[in-house]
Amino acid sequence: MTQSVGGWLQQDSELLWHPYSSLSAPSPVRLVRGAEGVRLHLDDGAGGTVEAIDAMASWWCMIHGYRHPVLDAAVKNQVDDFSHVMFGGLTHEPAIRLAARLVEINPSPLEHVFFCDSGSVSVEVAIKLALQYQVARGHNGRTRMLTVRGGYHGDTFAPMSVCDPVNGMHSLFTGALKEQVFGPQPPAGFDRPDDDPELLAWAAELAALAERHADEIAGIIVEPVLQGAGGMYPYSPACLRVLRELADQHGFLLILDEIATGFGRTGTLFASEHAGIDPDILCVGKALTGGYLTLAAMLCTTDVAQTVSNGPGGALMHGPTFMANPLACSVALASIDLLLSQDWAGRVAAISAGLSTGLAPAASLPAVKDVRVLGAVGVVQLGGPVDIQRITDAVLRRGVWVRPFRDLVYTMPPYVCTDEEIATIAAAITGAVEEAG
């Protein structure tokens, strides 16, 4: 006999940890019965379902929506050949083709690819690569990373160490994590000019910090132009040019974490293009597979790859079991081709315009501190912490699914949302914030 929705949810609360959740006081969850296009079908508890536009694109990865026929076919076709083989001593066409495609589309001279299980792992690998690079160059004392406050790079140990140590989500691990070098958060505002006094003061402080710790630092790691889970915080591309100059001056490697920003989210295919600079190492994930399977990649320059390969150990010391999983590589290749076969930039620009218009009324609400939009990202920042359950319920009653956090009610919708669906998302967020007071 089919179990009731209440029965499933009871089992869930007894058995499962959800992200950043407690087993003793679990947050409410909703049972998904299906998903198609940009809509989730949620069990209503009475034998039916309710539809909601997924304004989160399943945590920013489902850019083409659910059950896209092209992506479905890519997975099914690969299953008919083989679903997985080890990548040690073996290779396969999906991995080779995907690596070639990533090298082709990235705007930087990044010509070598390491496939990973997840975005967090790609950051782990990038940091390990930077450390090995410095050892290979005879700089054994360069074991720390330089980054900025407000960043978020993942939940495994090396990424946790370069997340904001005070306002991030990992302060409980203080003392257990590697102590990195943190500079101030870049001044807010994507359109801030290069000669802005605040930006120049920030640059001077970063330069002094880099000079002071030059013999300790292996690389610089940041999320380009938009800090994601650290606060949906946009900053000027000029800051990236400052970091590139510091890296060149001191022999650091520049790592750009584009796990959230890659594949068009900020209006360019890769966010680094806003600054016109090239990283030494690039991390991508999330939208890489269109949300179908977990996969990430770390790309690097030939100089980095050859230096490490000719250094102690003679290899990059990492190798996940599910590295370059053929199913994930096949659907990732299909997702990239699908994205680039369309006017994705025009669609992201239309989403940006729709969010700007639709969220503008929220700026006048008493509870709202700021409203900001960058590419296909729309943010309503409150003056205090979000009542997550109250806002979630209020938005859902308006036919939209969001997942607020901290003081933010935000959306990063699928690119395939229509103008009408974007308007619905914006109106739902604005209406819910107004209702919650």
TrEMBL record:
- Any GO molecular function: adenosylmethionine-8-amino-7-oxononanoate transaminase activity
Its pathway? Answer: Cofactor biosynthesis; biotin biosynthesis; 7,8-diaminononanoate from 8-amino-7-oxononanoate (SAM route): step 1/1
Cofactor list: pyridoxal 5'-phosphate
> Which residues are involved in binding substrate?
W59, Y152, K286, G319, R403
Sorted UniProt keywords? Aminotransferase, Biotin biosynthesis, Cytoplasm, Pyridoxal phosphate, S-adenosyl-L-methionine, Transferase
Q: What class of enzyme is it?
A: transferase
| Gene Ontology CC terms | cytoplasm
Q: What is the annotated signal peptide range for this record?
A: none
SUPFAM superfamilies from the entry? PLP-dependent transferases
EC number of this enzyme: 2.6.1.62
Key word Cytoplasm present in the record?
yes
A GO BP entry is:
biotin biosynthetic process
| Residues holding pyridoxal 5'-phosphate | G119, S120, D257, P320, T321
Does the record carry Transport as a key word? no
Instruction: Name the protein family.
Output: Belongs to the class-III pyridoxal-phosphate-dependent aminotransferase family. BioA subfamily.
According to its UniProt entry, the function of this protein is described as: Catalyzes the transfer of the alpha-amino group from S-adenosyl-L-methionine (SAM) to 7-keto-8-aminopelargonic acid (KAPA) to form 7,8-diaminopelargonic acid (DAPA). It is the only aminotransferase known to utilize SAM as an amino donor.
Classification via NCBIfam families: bioA (TIGR00508), PRK05964.1 (NF004624)
Annotated protein name in UniProt:
Adenosylmethionine-8-amino-7-oxononanoate aminotransferase
Q: Which organism is it from?
A: Kribbella antiqua
The major lineage groups are: Bacteria, Bacillati, Actinomycetota, Actinomycetes, Propionibacteriales
